[in-house]
TrEMBL record:
It comes from Balneatrix alpica. Signal peptide: none annotated. Keywords: Membrane, Transmembrane, Transmembrane helix. This is Sulfite exporter TauE/SafE family protein. Residues 8-207 form the Urease accessory protein UreH-like transmembrane domain.
Amino acid sequence: MASMDLWAALLIGLMGGSHCLGMCGGLMTAVALQSPQRRPSLLLSYNLGRISSYMLAGALVAGLGSLLGNHGWQFLRLFAAIMLILMGLYIAGWWAALTHLERWGQRLWRHISPYTRKLLPVRHNGQALLLGICWGWLPCGLVYSTLSWSLSSGSSVEGALLMGAFGLGTLPSMLATGWFAQQMKGWMQNPWLRRLSGLIIIAWGLYSLRFLLHLH
């Protein structure tokens, strides 16, 4: 895996933070308010669980992708390059088609969501960790698109690293609460910054696409 892939995944997570705040911000605030004096440890435990689920999903998906052989790998890399371009368009605010991917995970989420309710209110780190592990499977177009990219990463370890980089990118927005969360959301929604980030991701996708076509 190229190190640029990890940087791109990190950037996707960082600039997709406003989407993450919309999906998980309410729960994060609820976790923080349950025990304000333990807010930092609870939030860290929750996010550790969430990112662990991302990495597990990345490892499973990449492991399946690695079974397809060389021709299958080339197809997956082509698919990954296209997904990168689509993610860049989403980050830049030019096309939000990736949000339609969220429907795919609704069936799985129906089985997991009852367990999240049993973990509330959160009173200790173990509960927060388990809640994060469950919440990591929440249907999210941004997560699914990055996960589909990890299909072509080559191995379970690299798939886990790719999703881990994406998860780390989401941390700043997910650890922010209250006034700071609103300030960060405003920063991440700055149209020029989002367009620049989107263009960087699109450029990396086009470069990957050009490299693959050159192989043929």
